[in-house]
M23ase beta-sheet core domain-containing protein
Amino acid sequence: MKTASIGLPNPHRMTLLVLRDANQPVKQLHVSKPLVIAVPLIALLSISGLIISLQIQSSQTISKLEKQIQSQDLRFEAVVTDKDAAIERLQNEVIALSGQSQEMMNRMERVTELETELQKFIDKYGGGEELGRLSSMSLDEDDSLGVGGEFIAVHENEIEQLALDTKDQFTEMSALLDEMEKNVPVTLKKARQTQYTLSGTPTEWPTLSKRLTSNFGYRTDPFTGRASFHAGVDIAGKIGDPVYAAGAGKVITAAKDSSHGKYIVVEHPGGLQSWYLHLSKISISEGDTVTKGQRIGSLGNTGRSTGPHLHFEIVKQEKAVDPLPYLE
Ligand SMILES: [Zn+2]
């Protein structure tokens, strides 16, 4: 389609010729001059309007985006703050862990020292003063000591090194624990054994034979045939059989007379005494300290005795009591 304007006598009107196909007639359009000006002006105005509205829209979008970015910035800031707090927490944890680890190491060292002390004590086999020293030693469990001081910030590298050191300390501790787990039961067994041998209660059967030939109490006297009181138990055995201290204590008598024959009296802590009569041999001296189960003499037939046997007696506060309830 082509348009052309042709000059006409009327100065306020314009004629537009519309030329279509060659076969089709030419079309004439009469338009007024103001209209010709108005149309492009309107078009221009409307385009301007569009541009302005687009500008407004875009500025709105920008401000919206700006707001979004701002809120995102805030979020990022929050995340960073969280991270900082997490790092600080971690640092504090590592520091606390390191402190705990160090303290644990110290404690374990003290325990190891104690174990060594215990071992020494057992090896010495019953040094009373060692026991006293051992029991007076105690772990300082008081952790409520005051803390404070200047705050000095630490570098990340230092924290890393601290963590590494802590790891090393834990490895060391683990090895120490393994060793202790092996040693302590052995030590404990020895300790129990020692405790037993040091026990002052006369519970150990005093010779090899368990054959009782006379009980504690009233009986017919084997020499006179008259009623009499038997202050202990008679255990038949062979001459030379070992005679053991029934409990730990101090030998207060190691002597010989016509009635008791060769005999021993051991005084135990707690006011008990154990008597061993008619022995063939005495292996200890008066004033000696004996442990439970220690050999103190040999079974015999000395004194007022009708055959090889051990007369065993327990005296409680100067009065003879039935020894059987004491013996295991
Ligand atoms: Zn007797």
Observations:
- The longest strand covers residues 249-257.
